[in-house]
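Extended Data, panel c. Modelled sequence:
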Amino acid sequence: MAVKPQRLRPGDVVAVVSPSWGGPALFPATYEAGLNTLRGLGLVVREYPSARAAKASVEDRVSDIHAAFADQDVRAIVASIGGEDSVRLLPRLDSQLLADNPKIVLGYSDTCTLLVYLRSLGHVAFHGPSVMGGLAQAASYPGTFLEQFTSILFGAASSFEYPSFGVFCDGYEDWSNPQNATRTKPLVSDSGPRVVQGQCLRRGVLWGGCLEILEMVKGTPWWPKPEAWRDAVVFIEGSEEVPPPELYSRVLRSWAAAGNLDHVAALLVGRARGYDASQKQALDDAVRTAIGVEAGRPDMPVITNCDFGHTDPQWLLPMGCMVEVDIQRTRIALTESAVSNPAAAR
């Protein structure tokens, strides 16, 4: 069973760190907008020294992460934004310190390195919006976007059915203009998750993240052991660099060749950023071929165009928790609380 952090309550302290790119230094208005969203949830924001640094060293970023985990007042740690080099931090992290101090850790994109690290320690880790990428623009999204935070992180819901938000955007307006701090590119209607193959209902433990970042972690000591893939519900999504369907195929072929997909319960694919309708169809076809034909798993439920990844709004996915994938109803739901001691006083 995964180690769960304590649930949030109004007044709790949230640490904000920049484990990768120093985006807050370049676009402070967007960063401040995201901090205000956290404050609007009733949380107290505590920034760490390198959070606003343009080019913080690996040592400084590791120091901030260690300090946030060691601080007993901090209940959650949220990444300011992603980047491309946080994998360099992993060998320098104090695994015992992190293991002994479970906290809610939230982010996506390059922050997936830290989430995968925490899962290797047996902790629940939260794949979802960052301060600048998603939280800053929260007011633009349907109310269900922030309601999931209340249900999953504050309310400790024992079950939660993920909504189809019905709209999405492919990124944000130019952050160099402070007036765009909370603005997204146009919201367009979305058909929601699509079933690619499978007929049965499956349950499994969530694991996954950004496709390109997962490939950076592959082969390191923090990559899941063979037994961790058994009955897992794996989720993948492509970055803002718009990887083609062929990249999804290559990665899935690699995982299949290693035997990782032999006993996976289901596969979820995030809504691809920058894709038109024909590219989305090509992605569905590529995934269906890679799983159903090449990997010999036509039984595996596969749902694409899910509301997570590098488009917004996105789901909050607790890696390490049990979910149910119902192909007949195109339904994805948490079946356990993602946080601990929902009724305990502090």
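The two ends are 23 Å apart (CA to CA). This feature is highlighted in the accompanying rendering.
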